[in-house]
## 1
Amino acid sequence: MIAAGIRTMTIRQGRPRTRVAVFACVAVVALGIDQVTKLWAQTALSDGRTVPVIPPFLSLTLVHNPGASLGLGSSMTWVISLLAVAASIALIVLALRTSSMRWTLALALAFAGAFGNLIDRVAYADGFLNGKVIDFLNYGWSVGNVADIWLMLAGIGIVILIMMGTPFEGAADVVDADVAETVQMTMPETTDNVTSMTSNNDGRDTAQGGSSL
């Protein structure tokens, strides 16, 4: 019974590792898609041409954006870069703290979006975090990239999770309580079994002693 309790504890404590693995996989895949599409845009759209995709709603145009997502804050490049660094670190910390797989997925997309644009600001900088982000998805009223899409999806997901009341933390505490209860339940049974076995052995010893007399 103790072994069963230990196995239960091991299985349930392995779940945080699963969430970390999911966060890492989603973030890496999303980052990869963002960076590959940006490299493609710099090669295929470097001549300044515009490629219609869904006229007049979407076309492809290469733009180097010094501001934030969707062209906001173009005069505050280094400030936005510092905020992106802080946001990326905060998202990793939150991902390590959450007990919800749904929150893990939303945080992974948010991290991919923030870090994807931060890579551009560092890779194409000629000063202190003043690099320009590679945008190429022209919506007519603004130009963005895949990282912006990840940020938008993450934002929508977080709003939905909040509206649904999905807990950010708490599940881990329940698991720990369940594990403790499992161990506590198994220990008395084991003790009773040991006591029963001891009593049976004493009885057999007494019987054997009486027979020898």
Note: The beta strands are 51-54, 58-65, 133-138, 143-144.
## 2
Amino acid sequence: MELKPQLTLLLTLTLVAAFTVLPLCYRSLGGGRHRHFNNFFSSQPPPPDHGQAATPPPVPAADNHDSLGCDIYEGEWVPNPDAPYYTNATCWAIHEHQNCVKYGRPDGGFMRWRWKPDGCELPVFNPAQFLEIVRGKSLAFVGDSVGRNQMQSLICLLSRVSIYTYCEMEFTSYKITIFFQLRE
């Protein structure tokens, strides 16, 4: 399968932005070189969404897990009975036309998978910890519909722990605003 040069460039820029901004946020808080993934994740799943913001837990110190033997790019998809963490019914950011069940998907099994890298475990994403790390910073998503889906997923996860303002995706308690522009 050959990708168009524009699509390849767009995907490359999206990945560079994601893998540049997130580790830099961690390092600015004193994190180490190979442990940046652990700072955004927790062994505990996010709290259930009850329509209002939960009190964010304190940000724990990064653990001493040495991830040198962990290659996050090699691995497999494994069943995840704890998923999904949100659905189109619990997150406003998933648009009606993206409702797979409504438009013929017979089961929800496709939402119950997670990536398992070879040689290590990726902990569950902790939205309160992520918001604390990016407090007062800017976050940009550049991309196509895949980038839009990633942005929507992040918004759904963050919405579980903080009240947002719809106009610009502003999470006021963390002083972070997510701006986006979609082009079809």
Note: The longest helix spans residues 5-28.
## 3
Amino acid sequence: MTDNRQVVTRLMSRVLAKARPAAMSELEHQADALVAEMRAKVAKGETGHLAASIRREPGPRPNSVRVRAGGTLTRKPIKGDSIFGAFVAGLKAGLKGQEPYYDYARAIEFGIQGVPPQPFFFATYRKRKRAIRKAVKDAMKRAVETA
């Protein structure tokens, strides 16, 4: 009985040793393709900072990746010329301990008052989500078959 368990354990560890790197490699490839498609879809703007801010990062868990947009390249200071602006600026400055700002990547994705949204991030992700999952799943299947 224990011999069978050891055989299965060895087989599973060999399969996992091949499947994880294959899945991670494919996931990184798909994330890079997603980043390229998002960059192509985004409005170029004056500086091109929004397109440059779209990037692939390591995910919060092992064997995961995260695609992000925005950050230091797309931050603009909040002007406190209105009561609401001053309130938000005070909140952000108090919470972060730094100059109050907003990230215009979100403003472009979702729109703001008087400016319609120009979705580039979530629309592209939703369009490619099934294909990404299928590609990773297929890469794992190929790795398992060769194990």
Note: The chain has five helices and four strands.
## 4
Amino acid sequence: MNTKIINIANKYLLLCLLVFTGFACDDKDDKEDTSIPVLISQNIEEGAVVGPNGYVEQVFSKAMRQAPDTEIYFNGGVVRVTINYEKVRYTFSNMENKACTFEIPAGALTDMQGRAYDEDFSVNFTAKSEVAGTGKVFDAIVDSKGNGDFTSIQAAIDAAPFELTAPYKIFIANGTYTECIRVLKNKSYIHLIGESRDGVKIQFALNRVSESTNMVTWHILFSMKILLIAKLVILKNRMRL
């Protein structure tokens, strides 16, 4: 009889322990993040001197998006920015010897829950034809979304001067480029610099008998879709700019 009572008591004690543990282990980490976005960094500081082709980028504390019915400005004109999670970027080109101003009004950017970055952002800088040591100067920018000098890599290579004796740097923004690239003999010193290893993809149909949707993709660094005839052609991926 005593053994039966003890067993029943043990069962109730175990049940109480499980209930108490359930309350104690309530995961507070699942609570909604109510913090507002914070600007972490920017690639161009106030008053900086940069090259004529490049981009303005801000990094926030969380993934961002542009709020509906808002506008972002470059030199007073409305522009479209590219947003990749927490990174907000505007690409500019052909700004030789010009003063530049990039502006994001308060509330134009929000996080994914609609909480706004509630400060005005602006940066003034100067773009010049030749800037040494900045690491941000490119001779051409390729962006499949139309935010650069070219939308295809081949077009940028074709536009490069012949018989170069110094590096001609072509920046390739993240995106998918469906093309077979050729760098011919008279196009030496071409530097193809991808924004990231996983973000830049070059593809084309290997089997011309199959449907055109049957694609094979390689990352730019190891791509078999780049036919190199010229000497001194360099392929790079930038893990972080």
Note: Helices lie at 2-24, 153-159.
